[in-house]
Amino acid sequence: MSILDSKIPEGPLAEKWTNHKNNINLVNPANKRNIDVIVVGTGLAGGSAAATLAELGYNVKTFCYQDSPRRAHSIAAQGGINASKNYQGDGDSDYRLFYDTVKGGDYRSREGNVYRLAEVSANIIDQCVAQGVPFAREYGGLLDNRSFGGVLVSRTFYAKGQTGQQLLLGAYAAMNRQINRGKIEAFNRHEMLDLVLIDGKARGIIARDLVTGELERHSAHAVVIASGGYGNVFFLSTNAMGSNVTASWKIHKKGAYFANPCYTQIHPTCIPVSGDHQSKLTLMSESLRNDGRIWVPKKKEDAEAIRQGKLKPTELSEDERDYYLERRYPSFGNLVPRDVASRAAKERCDAGFGVNKTGEAVFLDFASAIKRYGKEQAVMHGNHNPSEEEVTKLGKEVVANKYGNLFEMYEKIVDANPYETPMMIYPAVHYTMGGIWVDYNLQSTIPGCYVTGEANFSDHGANRLGASALMQGLADGYFILPYTIGDYLADDIRTGKIATDQPEFEEAEKNVRERLEKLINNKGSKSVDDIHKRLGKIMWNKCGMSRNAKGLKEAITEIRELREQFWNEVKVPGSMDEMNPELEKAGRVADFLELGELFAKDALHREESCGGHFREEYQTDEGEAMRDDENFMYVAAWEYNGEPSEAVLHKEQLEYDYIEVKTRSYK
Fold this sequence. Notes:
Elements: H1 16-23, H2 29-32, E1 36-40, H3 44-56, E2 59-64, E3 81-82, H4 94-104, H5 111-131, E4 156-157, H6 163-181, E5 184-188, E6 190-198, E7 201-209, E8 215-219, E9 222-225, H7 246-253, E10 258-259, E11 264-270, E12 293-297, H8 300-307, E13 321-322, H9 324-328, H10 338-353, E14 362-365, H11 367-380, H12 388-414, E15 423-432, E16 435-436, E17 449-451, H13 469-489, H14 503-521, H15 528-543, H16 549-569, H17 581-605, H18 629-632, E18 634-639, E19 648-653
Parallel strand pairs: 1-2, 1-9, 2-5, 9-17
Antiparallel strand pairs: 3-4, 6-7, 7-8, 10-16, 10-18, 11-15, 12-13, 12-14, 14-15, 18-19
Helix pairs in contact: 3-6, 3-13, 4-5, 5-13, 11-12, 15-16, 15-17, 16-17
């Protein structure tokens, strides 16, 4: 085990990033034309990085498995993006955003990185407005803000319920400009299957053309991984079905440390599971918690009657409802952080108060908001004595303007009108705070291999605050990586083109081909999805919303056995030299089967509860997370050593000089 150096600059917190930019090496514009950079993943983190690097003059190659960068999973982000502009005049600042993020992450993130994130957040909004992103605006024309969980201010900029889509279109337009200039060469429908190291440095990748099946060699002076998170290790998650860990796992096996894999976020407002036939889950934006009130019946017999269809939720009076978040956390109410809200929902459902047929759902109710907005609108229109029908009509119009597309999506999926009856929600796997370990420059433990966005671990600690994923992805891509990667590339101005006929490329391609052939030639009888579903059930039941030592030990054994069964019994139809979606899935599930074991190992070793990592043995009398700052205030970074069971732990100690570390309270 070693102690990792995060390379946080010296000096006052608010001056670290500025001083660092002033002192790192730069690359002359004329020299940038001779340097190649590969970017794997073209969501917000990868797309913004590719566009910015190309704008600076680097030659960029982008890779995504989708048919267009517009289909990156960033498009699914609904609620908004944080920035500390304080447009509302409610006391926000860079420091408060920094503080809320560290506190929200349960004091398991880096001070230096998080303050930098807060510092550059305002620039993101200006950049996106300049691109034409249609953020919501107030009556006077200023950008509107709403609040998200874990904060007491309104700092979330949004575009109705499709913020991710609009931001991604902005990044995509910036990419397209560089594609037209010839500075970006886009390889869509390509999947990275290995990293190529030459003299210990990242110098290229092996990619598979997903249309023809051909393996290709691509060289560069640096490689950027921006391939998102690994939530689909649970099979059912809010992630796109194609989201995977493969790019991150391949660089992990080549020497990049994997940090905090057990830090996985369970989002509290998702459409509940309806049966084993499902292949993914659907998120209902956290922004809905601004106006929706979460409740279950106070009496178990009422919950049972609702489950059986004998009682409608609208038939229960206010006195018969338990607004449990407002009761338990009066200060933050329905806007507590995601991990807190998720555990509270699980506790109520486990206690027998769940409201759907499976007993695993709670209500998200907009009746109060409709009435409140309706009365406000009536007064604004000069009607001081409106009828109940008028109030309801006006209130629904306001709610529709704020959340209309989300309500439409819910009704299409559930076949229930959320304007008339409360939504049903339940927690689901959403975001992964763990990822590849990177230093302050976003460089992994492999020289020349950088990792941005959700694929790295750096900014969110043990729990991500809502609307911070888009903020981190764009901060990394637009404003951080373009500076820090130059510090490394300054040494490559005389290197020249990296040839792909070198032995290292030959060896990497050979290994990829052998692995694919092994999958294709396997004569098993089990489908890839069958094994993936079984992995997901192990992960959810024993590594999900709560964990314990017994369950984690069982999970490690069961995942290891399932991995062995996969390689002996999986059946992949078709060939490797053609379009073959089943082969794509098989490779990704093979990586999930290794990651899953490391995930459980990491959760077992961390004998505390913090953020999204909840160990049942370590909780307060009130059921809240109980941290162990004396023994576990560090980043757990795992080095690959042949098998997940043999992974070597390295620690990065976390120090807090500008924040008082204390038990989180949202009461």
